[in-house]
Amino acid sequence: MAGFALDAELTHLTVDNPMRQGFFSFSSLHGRGNHGLSGLFPYDLTGYHDGALVPLGTALGLVRAMVLREGTWCRLLGDGGFFVHVGTEHDVYVGATADPGQAVSRARALGLHVDEVARSPYDPSLDQVDEQRPADAEFWAEVTRLVDAHGGVLVEEQYIRNAYTWHRPTTPQDVDALRGRLRPRARLAVWPDPTEDADAVRDAIVRQNRLQLLVEQYAVGRFHHERIADLPTGAALKAEPGHRYALVPLEPADRDPLAAAVLPDADGVLRARWRADRTRADELRTYLASLRVGDTVTGVVSTGLHDIAVYVDLDDGLGRGVGWLRVPEMAWGQFNLADVAPVGREIRARIQSVDYSFEQVSLSVKALLPDPYHGFADTHQVGDTLPGYVTKLVPFGAFVRVAPGVEGLVPLAELADHEIAEPAEVVSVGDGVRVVVLDIGLDRRRITLSLRRATDD
Fold this sequence. Notes:
By secondary structure, this protein is of the alpha+beta class. The protein has helices spanning about 1-5, 35, 55-65, 100-110, 135-150, 170-180, 200-205, 230-235, 280-290, 335-340, 370-380, 450-455, and strands spanning about 10-20, 55, 75, 85, 90-95, 155-160, 165, 185-190, 210-215, 225-230, 245-250, 260, 295-300, 310-315, 325, 345-355, 360-365, 385-395, 395-405, 405-410, 430-440, 445-450. The strands form 5 sheets. The protein has a 5-stranded antiparallel beta sheet, with helices on one face. A hairpin with a 2-residue loop joins strand 18 and strand 19. The model has no long low-confidence stretch (mean pLDDT about 90).
């Protein structure tokens, strides 16, 4: 890319339609160093906006972050029609204004595959762009009227896609001051004033049938980072004196702000053309929102064990690697991973939770299987004598398997009639034994057994 730019005698490129996160993924599993922007821009991303002119070195850093899928995405434009677009399959599209022969040769010498194509699939002329109202004097007069009428409003400033700054003007003077703090070409949306009624917001999250952002304002005035409004975040809401809360729809079809506009340039001309095309991340976010805890889904195990779980490709084009099946949720009792969740195994599972920040759906296969402890409780009672075999020794006793998937504990005092210091004095792993059922606790799925009482019998 540097070769193409230098051949075109370009030292700076213009940023177009920047995103902090969201083109490839919005997961906190991905992204690094402020979404790949650390070292390129200040932490508050000053200088990273639509229309920003950046040095070639910064542009190269942006390309690197995009190729590595660290979170950010934008198009880069140069004089004379030069452009750089990074695609979804690690492909890079370069529009050269000079003879590209030398740069192509250099690229091929680096082992890169170079093809000539008719156009980039990210050509701005292919963008879907909604009608955009300029944030002019008429718009700000409307905002001031809304503040007067409601005592305050919530202003959403989306200065790059999926990066927000929130404002709450409560007086006409606040509106005037806000106008001087906004970032170039930002998209603005005005929402109803946040409420102090945390219970009402919590109830709305429970009832919601659309994807929303939860926005919190502290008593001191500053805002907490927005987050997807779901049941876990709703449950964590606590009414604090002076705190305010708002729910802001995410899906374009659900968004109906009190007013919306895009900031024009300093000369009053509206040059921003914010693309409204849905990205894969937008589609994935909608897919996750369609899933409900308790639903049954199908999929295929796609990886071996990752620490404590395997990844599962759910049966949807967007569900690749989204399923997360932890070892304790694979089956009841003891098992071999190769028997219950080998790579390629088709599974049915129940959704335990949906985590937007990690783009993961926690699954449970065993939740769809009969609990062997309940089956044991239905067919056995306290006082029964049963055969079994020792599966594990622990300092406080020995575990004995008495039925498939069912193990009970023989406490140290119930291993022998005489005092012993450790279970190994009486039994070893693998020993066949007879035990008496002392207690069946279904609430904690615990069965207490006695070896010495069976011996007495």
